[in-house]
Amino acid sequence: MTERGTGSDPVDLFIIGGGINGCGIARDAAGRGLSVTLAEMGDLAQATSSASTKLFHGGLRYLEYFEFRLVREALEERETLLVAMPHISWPMRFVLPWQPEMRFAGDTPTARLLGRLMPWARGRRPAWLIRLALETYDRLGGRKILPPARSVDLTRDPAGRALQPRFTKGWEYSDCWVEDSRLVVLNARDAEIRGATILTRTKVVGAERRGDLWHVTTEGARGRQVHRARALVNAGGPWVARIIRETLALPTTEGVRLVRGSHIVTKRLFDHDRCYFFQGTDGRIIFAIPYETDFTLIGTTDQDHRGAPDEARCTPEEQDYLCTFASDYFRKPVTREDIVWTYSGVRPLHDDGARSATAATRDYVLSLDSRGAPLLNVFGGKITTYRRLAESAMAKLAGHFPQARGAWTARVPLPGGDFPWDGAPALAEGLRRDYPFLTERWAMRLVRAYGTDARNLLGPARSALDLGRDFGATLTEAEVRWLMDREYAERAEDVVWRRSKLGLRLTPEEIAALDGWMKDAGGAMEARADTG
């Protein structure tokens, strides 16, 4: 067993967890001049952070729960993040159809208030209240780039063609798309560029305080190691409470509520680029979003999850629920036969005692234990506010690291994001001009994944053959090597389901062939590293 830091200084921060919160904190801390090591037991974004609805949004429905601070912070972040990552995030318009039968969930503060003031409404969502909510949504976050909400005549607007004729009125508002798992990887990559050490497939099996330091034991490809750190950050997501109780062997009264969010991906259901925000008669909502050009993403569910976090699956019952919900709006019913893929993740919400999974807060809680070497436990959070969460985490730890520089991440580009927020089409056009063998779709896929780094990936190639082996669906050896060298990918699933969604286009045989090639290439890389 080796001990990291025995012959040198310990690191300032050791972070457990390679989801968006852990990688966001690693990037922030490294940019402040702190030394950082992060350990993730699997691949980056392997759990919750690759199973979101892929949105930077304020959370329109959270206004019903009077979570104004959370919504304001998230809305303020939308454009801050959009400017910093225009390759993996872009504006989207959401169409919200309305009908008189729409109701609030019975356990929301808004429903209870209206029940007292307007008992004759019987829990319905009146049109004037939705309009007021959208006006509030527009004003809360200081919107500058995104266009404002507007009313929509669904009998004339193209968005109404895919809907049942009974939907004649609605509204349209703005939020942003984000490639969630790429967001995690790019934060980790930027943290490493700024000096952090990122250890994937490395599990923390124990940690204990010894004097003013943490001694953290890990198991990974290089065997068992001990790392020393001045502070420990537990960003274990769904495993955060288990890490406190079992890995750290510390008593705690804090916990998480595991809420399963499941999604289905179907064949393309409509022929425009706007999204739908559907309200159910039970007070719940789902989205229907254009996805990967040829598909539609529908979700999400909210179910309390009783099993292990990594056992989350979209159940047949959830698939039926989402199909039925969407079919209540679309002119053509959505059936199980339309589904091409499903995914499910567990949201680690701070356990605030809410009666239902839908009502549980999406806000985050940072708990600092300073009895000896500091321990910061991260509970909850949402992908839109990850950067603010990281800043808050560093503020909590500031007293222990007076040498750290101040906050810096707002609007600072992630790798490949150094171009205007609306510049992706021009970037793709430039790629096609300089690399004529690229198709329009191929060029845009590379821009949406790598931004300005797409040129570094393509290098001096003059034909597709110069990019090496073709794995299918425009995935080449050059791209896979880039992902292995710079983005921590080791297996085919890392590439086709997290660094991209090419798994929707590749056959099982093609994915197996890619996995075999990556195993061989990874073994060769390790052999060279050992001899070097």
Automatic annotation (TrEMBL):
Domain of life: Bacteria
Species name: Cereibacter sphaeroides (strain ATCC 17023 / DSM 158 / JCM 6121 / CCUG 31486 / LMG 2827 / NBRC 12203 / NCIMB 8253 / ATH 2.4.1.)
Gene3D superfamilies tied to this protein: 6.10.250.1890, Alpha-glycerophosphate oxidase, cap domain (1.10.8.870), D-Amino Acid Oxidase, subunit A, domain 2 (3.30.9.10), FAD/NAD(P)-binding domain (3.50.50.60)
SUPFAM superfamilies: FAD/NAD(P)-binding domain (SSF51905)
InterPro entries: DAO_C (IPR031656), DAO_C_sf (IPR038299), FAD-dep_OxRdtase (IPR006076), FAD/NAD-bd_sf (IPR036188), G3P_DH_FAD-dep (IPR000447)
GO molecular function: glycerol-3-phosphate dehydrogenase (quinone) activity
Domain Alpha-glycerophosphate oxidase C-terminal stretches: 409-505
Name by which UniProt lists this protein: Glycerol-3-phosphate dehydrogenase
Keywords in alphabetical order: FAD, Flavoprotein, Oxidoreductase
Lineage: Bacteria, Pseudomonadati, Pseudomonadota, Alphaproteobacteria, Rhodobacterales
